[in-house]
């Protein structure tokens, strides 16, 4: 690695550490009694978010498609200390379910302090094979339902000076092979909510908006997809979930987890050829 590259990388690391040091401190008491909606909470990172919130004594509404699993997660939340743990089964590919979830949660909780949008629909980890219908469907689940829920939640968040948290991915900043439909939905999220962030600030809104950029996390779904195809380190879902909550509770604009996803995202902008070479040679693929 050349001296120039080393200086650039060292500067990025120093800047990142400085930002981290000046970040506001997290007070878990601020979540006691907080009214929170978590989507995609039947499994994976969303499930872990629900358990952390439960330990902090929050009032939670969780949603996903599988009612039986949601019921089990809600019961565990109550045993961990949640003040309330309610669930509603919903399919985010439907035109009406995103609104139905928000209305249910508003009725049960009386308002929101946090809305954490986290769900994703299943998508294959393969080369793009021309399935436009799947991509349209995934856009509905991973993108359109997010903006629908966000819009319907904003008036309540405005009243409570609440936080809207959007879970995105490094693949929303840096396209990679085998995930064309998924990466499209995450780019759409980053674009839309990046724009909304400015508009809320310009309107002097009370609502804080956080976008979470995640690297590979060790959920069952993700590990199942990447096994035998790519060998990169996966980070724990429980720690990821805690970082997402802290980002929303401390009203930070962005989370990069693990921290080096920030460096990877910047490296892609500054050294595209090198990044392309690394990406294309990281995946186990023979044509
Ligand atoms: N894991 C990673 O490596 C990774 C990396 C970067 C970003 N992320 C982001 O982190 C978030 C959580 O990822 P994860 O790995 O925890 O995902 P996951 O384990 O696949 O969980 C997805 C959740 O979404 C729900 N869901 C699926 N289809 C749905 C639909 N049509 N309507 C409503 N709910 C639906 C699932 O429950 P049901 O099946 O019961 O509906 C489940 O609760 C996502 O936004 C993802 O993009 C993850």
Describe this protein's structure.
The protein has a single domain, classed as Rossmann fold. α2 runs parallel beside α3, α4 packs parallel to α5 and α5 (132-160) runs parallel beside α6 (180-202). The chain is an alpha/beta fold and 287 residues long. It is built from ten helices and seven strands. Strands 3-2-1-4-5-6-7 form a seven-stranded parallel β-sheet, sandwiched between helices. It is globular. NADP nicotinamide-adenine-dinucleotide phosphate is lined by residues 40-46, 64-66, 69, 90-93, 118-121, 141, 167, 169, 214, 216-217, 219, 221-222.
Please give a handful of descriptors for the protein shown.
287 residues, alpha/beta, Rossmann fold, seven-stranded parallel beta sheet, 10 helices, 7 strands, binds NADP nicotinamide-adenine-dinucleotide phosphate
How far is the first residue's CA from the last residue's CA? 30 Å
Stated plainly, the CATH topology is called Rossmann fold
Which structural class should the secondary elements be placed in?
alpha/beta
The percent range for strand residues is: 5-15%
CATH class: Alpha Beta
**Tally of contiguous helical segments:** 10
């Amino acid at each position: 690695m050349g001296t120039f590259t080393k200086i650039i990388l060292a500067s990025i690391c120093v800047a990142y550490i400085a930002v981290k040091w000046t970040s506001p401190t997290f007070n878990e008491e601020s979540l006691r009694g907080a009214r929170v909606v978590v989507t995609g909470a039947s499994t994976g990172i969303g499930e872990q978010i629900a358990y952390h919130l439960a330990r902090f004594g929050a009032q939670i509404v969780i949603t996903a498609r599988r009612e039986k699993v949601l019921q089990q997660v809600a019961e565990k939340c109550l045993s961990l200390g949640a003040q309330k743990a309610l669930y509603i089964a919903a399919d985010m590919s439907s035109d009406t379910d995103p609104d139905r979830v928000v209305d249910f949660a508003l009725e049960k909780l009386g308002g929101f302090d946090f809305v954490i949008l986290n769900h994703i629909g299943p998508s294959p980890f393969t080369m793009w094979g021309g399935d436009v219908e799947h991509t349209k469907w995934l856009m509905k689940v991973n993108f359109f339902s997010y903006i629908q829920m966000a819009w319907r939640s904003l008036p309540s968040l405005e009243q409570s000076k609440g936080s809207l948290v959007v879970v995105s991915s490094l693949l929303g900043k840096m396209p990679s092979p085998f995930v064309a439909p998924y990466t499209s939905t995450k780019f759409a999220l980053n674009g839309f909510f990046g724009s909304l962030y400015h508009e809320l600030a310009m309107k002097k809104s009370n609502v804080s908006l956080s976008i979470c950029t995640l690297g590979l996390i060790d959920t069952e779904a993700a590990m199942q997809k990447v096994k035998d195809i790519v060998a990169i380190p996966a980070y724990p879902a429980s720690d990821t979930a805690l970082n997402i909550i802290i980002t929303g509770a401390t009203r930070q604009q962005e989370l990069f987890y693990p921290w080096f996803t920030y460096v990877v995202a910047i490296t892609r902008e500054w050294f595209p050829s090198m990044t392309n070479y690394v990406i294309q040679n990281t995946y186990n693929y023979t044509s």
